[in-house]
Write a structure and sequence with these properties.
It is built from six helices and seven strands. By secondary structure, it is α/β, with parallel strands linked by helices. Bound molecules: S-adenosylmethionine.
């Protein structure tokens, strides 16, 4: 796509987000993936890692409805009004286990749109993104319901590919996605693990 057309598309998503009451254009990445894979349904329990400014949590809240629940966590508290089924917690996911999250598990869907503050140095950004993905997986692995789904953002790299390969036996299917709302120059892709197979059996006890 030509740079001018791409910039127009970027503007289109930002404008649309403002008009539809979402604080960030990233909502259209989740929407596109959800429309294709039907991840979100009424009554589900959803964990949103790196939730600020809140577009994904808002979108998920609309889909799970008043009988569902969305727990969002971020370093920063979003300045967004959420419906009652959303609980937002402040914390650094690389450091603090947040007790409330454990008590709310299991989750039907664990989302991570976490991204590091980019340094403009490709290898550093890729390595930091991968640290966040590993951490998101550590959370998902213990808190996903059987057959639950895990969607996370990754800055592509060889190490990232190796990490995704380790997830393959843990899900029925793994897909890599680049939604239309992703900026073309961005390193980011989304990885969706569908139908979690459950905790790994410890073969030494079998
Ligand atoms: C791209 S934004 C998420 C946008 C969000 N999905 C939305 O639609 O509004 C990435 C977020 O990851 C958060 N983040 C990065 N590192 C984190 C960490 N260690 N713990 C918690 N949140 C983190 C950032 O604070 C930032 O708000």
């Amino acid at each position: 796509m030509a740079i001018k057309d791409r910039a127009r598309l970027d503007d289109h998503y930002s404008r649309k987000a403002r008009q539809e009451g979402f604080p960030a254009r990233s909502v259209y990445k989740l929407e596109e993936i959800d429309q294709k894979y039907k991840l979100l349904r009424p009554g589900q329990n959803v964990l949103d890692l790196g939730c600020a400014p809140g577009s994904w949590s808002l979108y998920a809240a609309g889909k799970v409805g008043s009988k569902g629940r969305v727990i969002g966590i971020d370093l920063e508290l979003p300045d967004t009004a959420f419906p009652p089924q959303v609980t937002i917690l402040q914390g650094d996911l690389l450091e603090n286990p947040v007790e409330l999250v454990h008590s709310a598990a299991p989750f039907d869907l664990v989302l991570s749109d976490m991204a590091p503050k980019t340094m403009g140095r490709r290898e550093v950004d890729q390595a930091r993104s991968l640290d966040l993905c590993r951490m998101a997986w550590a959370w998902a692995e213990t808190m996903l319901a059987p057959s639950g789904h895990f969607l996370f953002k990754l800055f592509q790299s060889q190490d990232g590919d190796d990490f995704v390969r380790t997830l393959k036996p843990r899900f029925s299917q793994i897909v890599r996605l680049k939604p239309k709302a992703t900026r073309s120059q961005s390193l980011e892709i989304f990885v969706l693990g569908m139908k979690y197979c459950g905790p790994q059996k410890d073969e030494s006890t079998m």
